């Protein structure tokens, strides 16, 4: 498995909109187990796990890729998430530490996050077989090579890498580089082509992420977090667990996040694309109220993609989807073209149907 050396020249580019929250201490695992939506306490260094952090009403404050670092002297967990929500998350999680022997901190001073695409040399089927610090996550609704996404975790020295690929994309890698004395925490979140490319990759794989604009706006089910293994329905209590579980066991899932291609309505519409998160989405068949809401938008080059929370019943109909804006001459920022058939999992399932596919090789 080829993992680039952070100190050498490589194709990996630093991400500015992403960072790592560090939770460390003897009680770190038990503390996260009581706060997040999935099992964390028994997480081993060779397993990558998604999890969310909710309010008491079951709304997501943030969601993460969680991994346990293999080489620390005391239990240490890294929570990879958007940097614009990290300060609030660190503060809120710290409020619940109380007498637990652990500490929650912003890890951007000591952990660099880098993104690499197209130049990743990895055999997704074989490279993990002889690596004990390796796990594989696969979604495949058709059980063939036409609808799938794979994410592989590997650790070599101070570099932990998350590799990914799907039927529509070239392989990519996300590298978490532990480096004591790294650059100071960035004070601003600026536009960055590497961030755009990385977020576009995950958006097209149907992986939603919470950012500052979407904090407390969505339940885990609304962003398909239960479908990709981010929620466990057999663990103990956590904030919002009652609401999330009630929806799973007693309710009917009527809305899901759907992958859509963003089609600009006019040349100047690109000025508004970066502010589309949480914007209402309208359907041509119902003008009296919005039909859905945008979860996230990501652009890579000339094409933009969005995950949009939409009612499942309307997806079977012939509908034009669009976002309104009074600032544009036509009153429309963009149109949306659903591509649910491109997603590596079925949005019509219920619950953690793909937990069985998330396992250590």
Commentary on this structure:
- The chain has helices spanning 28-35, 86-95, 193-204, 241-249, 270-273; strands at 13-14, 18-24, 49-54, 60-68, 76-82, 103-106, 111-117, 134-139, 149-156, 159-166, 169-178, 255-264, 280-283, 292-300, 303-311, 321-324, 332-338, 358-359.
- It is mainly beta and 361 residues long.
- It has a domain at 13-205: Aminomethyltransferase beta-barrel domains (Alpha-Beta Plaits).
- The strands form three sheets. The chain has a seven-stranded antiparallel sheet with strand order 1-7-11-10-9-8-18, covered by helices on one side. A six-stranded antiparallel barrel has the order 12-15-14-13-16-17. Strands 3-4-5-2-6 form a five-stranded antiparallel sheet, with helices on one face.
- The radius of gyration is 20 Å and the shape is globular.
- The chain starts with 12 loop residues before the first strand and ends with a strand.
- The relative contact order is 0.16.
Strand and helix map with partners:
Blueprint: E1 13-14, E2 18-24, H1 28-35, E3 49-54, E4 60-68, E5 76-82, H2 86-95, E6 103-106, E7 111-117, E8 134-139, E9 149-156, E10 159-166, E11 169-178, H3 193-204, H4 241-249, E12 255-264, H5 270-273, E13 280-283, E14 292-300, E15 303-311, E16 321-324, E17 332-338, E18 358-359
Antiparallel strand pairs: 1-7, 2-5, 2-6, 3-4, 4-5, 7-11, 8-9, 8-18, 9-10, 10-11, 12-15, 12-17, 13-14, 13-16, 14-15, 16-17
């Amino acid at each position: 498995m080829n993992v680039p050396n952070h100190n050498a020249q490589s194709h990996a580019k630093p991400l500015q909109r992403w960072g790592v929250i560090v939770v460390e201490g003897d009680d770190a695992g038990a503390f996260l187990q009581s706060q997040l939506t999935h099992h964390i306490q028994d997480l081993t260094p060779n397993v990558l796990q998604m999890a969310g952090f909710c309010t008491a009403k079951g709304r997501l404050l943030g969601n993460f890729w969680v991994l346990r670092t293999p080489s620390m002297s005391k239990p240490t967990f890294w929570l990879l998430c958007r940097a614009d929500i990290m300060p609030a998350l660190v503060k809120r999680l710290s409020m619940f530490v109380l007498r637990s022997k652990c500490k929650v901190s912003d890890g951007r001073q000591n952990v660099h996050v880098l993104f690499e695409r197209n130049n990743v040399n990895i055999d997704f089927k074989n490279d993990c077989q002889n690596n004990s610090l390796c796990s594989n996550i696969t979604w495949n609704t058709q059980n063939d090579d036409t609808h799938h996404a794979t994410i592989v975790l590997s650790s070599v020295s101070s570099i932990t890498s998350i590799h990914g690929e799907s039927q529509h994309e070239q392989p990519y890698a996300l590298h978490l580089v532990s480096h004591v004395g790294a650059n100071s925490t960035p004070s601003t979140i600026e536009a960055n082509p590497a961030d755009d490319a990385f977020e576009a990759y995950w958006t097209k794989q149907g992986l939603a992420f919470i950012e500052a604009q979407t904090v407390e706006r969505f339940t885990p089910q609304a962003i398909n977090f239960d479908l990709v293994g981010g929620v466990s329905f057999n663990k103990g209590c956590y904030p919002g667990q009652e609401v999330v579980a009630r929806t799973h066991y007693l309710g009917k899932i009527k809305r899901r996040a759907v992958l859509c291609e963003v089609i600009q309505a006019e040349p100047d519409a690109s000025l508004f694309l970066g502010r589309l998160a949480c914007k209402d989405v309208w359907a041509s068949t119902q003008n009296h109220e919005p039909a859905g809401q945008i979860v996230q938008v990501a652009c890579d080059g000339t094409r933009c993609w969005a995950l949009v929370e939409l009612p499942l019943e309307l997806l079977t109909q012939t509908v034009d989807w669009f976002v309104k804006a009074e600032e544009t001459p036509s009153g429309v920022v963009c149109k949306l073209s659903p591509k649910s058939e491109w997603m590596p999992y079925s949005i019509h399932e219920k619950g953690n149907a793909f937990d069985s596919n998330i396992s250590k090789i």
